[in-house]
Structures are given as C-alpha cells and as structure tokens.
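thought: user wants a sequence for this fold. calling inverse folding tool.
action: design(structure=
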C-alpha cells in the first residue's frame, strides 16, 4: 500500500519520459490528500502531468482533493489501465478528473463530489470500457456520473465513431442530491458512443438502461451483485456483445481483453461487451504500508 497518511498526495508525476516507461503495477494507493490553490489541490491519490507513466492493476481509494479525489490525469502519453477507483472525495471529480490521457478497463464507483461529477470530471481524453457506477454528487446542480464545465452543448450532427471520446462504457446508478444523474449533456467534449447509460443520453448507439438492476424486459443491466460492487454481467444482459466491435482498427492503447484476461472480440470479431467486467483486481492488504512517493 502506498499511503499519504491523510496529509499529502501519494503519487505526483511531472517528468517527460519518451524512451522508457515508469510502471506502477498492483499497488493500493490510499489516504492521499491534495489541497491548495489551482493544481495544488488536484489528484489526492495520483496526479499525472508528465509522460511515460503506466498505471495499471491498482486500487485507488479513500483519497481527497479539490479536483480529482482519486486521480487527476493530464497527459496523453499516460494510460491508466485495469484499476478500481472508489471511496474518493473531491469538490469536482470525486473519483477522477481528466483533461487528457487514457482511462480504460477500469471501475469507478462509490466516489463523492460536493459540487460536480461524483464519478468523472471530464474535459478531454479517452475513456474506453469502464464502469462509472454508483457515484454521488451532493449538489443538486451537479452531476453524479460524468460532467465537465458544462459550457457548450454537444453537437448532435453526424459524426464517425472516432469522434467520440467515451466508448464501450457503462454509466449507471449515479445520483445528484439523491436523484438519478448520469451524464451532463451540456458538455461539448463529453461524447459517448456504444455505451449504456441509465435513462439514456445523446450519442451514437446508446443503450437506455433501467434504474433497477433486474426485472422483466431487456433494459435491465443485470449486473451480478451491484450492492456488493460486483459489476460483472449475468447471462442475458443487454450489454453483452453490444460494444464497438471494430476495435482492432483503433489505436494500440485500446484494450483487447477484459480484466479477467478474456478476449473482448469474440465470434469472428463481431462481439464486444460493455464496461470493464471487473473480476480480478485484488486489493493489497494494509500490512505492508509504505509512505507516499513522488
């Protein structure tokens, strides 16, 4: 465990490595705290400005910040892969705040924002095959799931799939002041495609999910046990095989396996499931706790 002991940010990366990668793999990043003006208050658990950092198979929990309680991501050459991000708190972006970067195959859940975006405060970047679920915004004017500045509505004109930044994701169970609140559609860059959203939203090939997990009809998500944070899909879920299938044509950072190592592309390259299918990220026990690291 890398711990900030509730006094400091846990990981801060602002170096620029083009030939080598710094890999942070398999850690629990917890109890970090970022406070101060502007970016001093960003990323309580992890703040990434530089390039060449690969964060994967980590648990990011119980951190606090002004923006991006668990993670603040601000560089395109910094993939965050196969992570569980939960129990974090911020004014904006309780779980994650992004201005650039790649976030995929990850589960963002049970995070809290006091003002906006309980799950992800989003300005730009790519989010692929993630579950953004059961996050909370305390303010009635904010959003529980995904939100940014909210300064310009999404252009509803014709677009190709490569113009969409959030792909093959599940956004469900998020609330703002106790009311279902998934996606701020007044954000120009918050473009979803081939994703499943409670109540639906503007985008390409969006599945409209019911607010209840199970019931009669096709719109129920049918997670295995969302009450206990198991968001794997049961047989019969409408999200099985409904993702964007031509992912082999996407850039090489696109995940071709889920968190269990199963191939995402099946049945002659025509079936891809939605979300991260979180099944195998194991949290490290606290007995080997070490201090925060820069």
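)
observation: tool returned 294 residues.
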């Amino acid at each position: 465990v890398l711990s900030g002991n509730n006094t400091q940010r846990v990981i801060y990366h602002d170096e620029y490595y083009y030939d080598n990668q710094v890999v942070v793999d398999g850690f629990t990043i917890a109890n970090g705290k970022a406070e101060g003006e502007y970016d001093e208050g960003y990323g309580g658990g992890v703040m990434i400005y530089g390039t060449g950092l690969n964060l994967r198979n980590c648990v990011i929990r119980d951190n606090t910040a002004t923006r991006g309680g668990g993670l603040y991501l601000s560089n395109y050459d910094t993939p965050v892969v196969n992570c569980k991000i939960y129990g974090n708190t911020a004014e904006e972006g309780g779980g994650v705040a992004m201005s650039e970067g790649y976030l995929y195959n990850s589960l963002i859940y049970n995070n809290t924002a006091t003002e906006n975006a309980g799950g992800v405060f989003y300005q730009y970047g790519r989010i692929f095959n993630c579950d953004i679920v059961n996050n909370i915004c305390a303010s009635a004017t904010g959003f529980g799931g995904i939100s940014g500045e909210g300064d310009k509505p999404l252009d509803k004109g014709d677009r190709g799939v490569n113009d969409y930044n959030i792909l093959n994701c599940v956004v469900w169970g998020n609330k703002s002041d106790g009311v279902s609140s998934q996606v701020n559609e007044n954000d120009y860059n918050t473009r979803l495609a081939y994703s499943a959203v409670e109540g639906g939203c503007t985008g390409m090939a969006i599945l409209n999910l019911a607010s209840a997990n199970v019931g009669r009809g096709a719109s129920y998500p049918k997670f295995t046990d969302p009450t206990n944070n198991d968001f794997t899909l049961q047989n019969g879920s409408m999200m099985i095989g409904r993702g964007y299938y031509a992912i082999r044509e996407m850039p090489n950072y696109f995940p071709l396996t889920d968190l269990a190592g199963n191939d995402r592309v099946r049945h002659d390259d025509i079936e891809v499931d939605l979300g991260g299918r979180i099944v195998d990220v194991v949290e490290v026990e606290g007995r080997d706790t070490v201090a925060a690291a820069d």
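thought: summarizing for user.
answer: Here is the designed sequence. The two ends are 14 Å apart (CA to CA).
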